[in-house]
Amino acid sequence: MKYQDAQNIASYLFDQVKGACEVGNLLVQYQVPLCTIAGSLRRDKPEVHDIEIVASPSLKTPRPEFGKQIYKTEFDKKLAALEESGHLRFVMGGDKLKKYEVVMSAFGLPPTLNPFHVEFYLCTPPAQYGVLLTIRTGPAKDNDNFSKWMVTQKELGGALPDGYRVKHGAVWKEDQLDARQEPIKGQTPLHMPDELDFFKFCQVKWVSPQHRHALWRITK
Predict the structure, then answer these.
(1) Cα gap 110→25, rounded to integer Å
(2) Is the CB of residue 43 less than 8 Å from the CB of residue 137?
């Protein structure tokens, strides 16, 4: 799909769900919803294969309405409204990822040969917004996998400081993980509420999404 068509769809969806997200300081001095259009759209690619939105939903349960369905979060309620309005069709999902098919006619566009999808990556504990947004922005091509580079330890040619691991969208010290490389119960990951925190931790200069490239270091 052409960039502008995909951007118009993504912007509409973003506007519908942003009010159901937590707020925080993202590289700016004022509070904004923790919700960002990521993936190839954030990198301004001319051709877009799907839409990715990273969101930190407010976990507060919405006030129940008599005779109406009860939703776990306000974000879930917003997504259900997009289904009911005919903009999205549910494909799959859980607490971390929800995938929908975009109904092209609802946006005044002709049907595509293959289904065009939007994926909502939900930043819920223990995930940290800055880490998850970096990963989902990419690029993640085989020959230029910035996401993989950022979560790979320096000793293996990546950017992540040695002695740390990225699991479940968060950075942990190695001694916080068990033998299966899963976080030990009760452990808390490093606090990284925005991308700048993650980049600083990795000692990588923040660059705009359009200019991100993996800088693998050859190791012996």
Answers:
(1) 38
(2) yes
pTM of the shown model: 0.93
Q: Over the stretch 50-104, which tens digit does the pLDDT of each residue have?
A: 999 999 999 888 877 777 788 999 999 999 999 999 999 999 999 999 999 999 9
- Read off the DSSP letter of residue 29: S
Predicted local confidence at residue 26, as pLDDT: 54
- Strand, helix or coil at 215? coil
CATH for 1-124 is 3.30.460.10
Considering only CA atoms, which of 138, 134, 97, 135 is closest in space to residue 117? Answer: 97
Q: Domain 139-220, what fold?
A: Beta Polymerase; domain 3 (3.30.210)
Provide the Cα torsion 144, 150, 153, 154; round to 10°.
Answer: 80
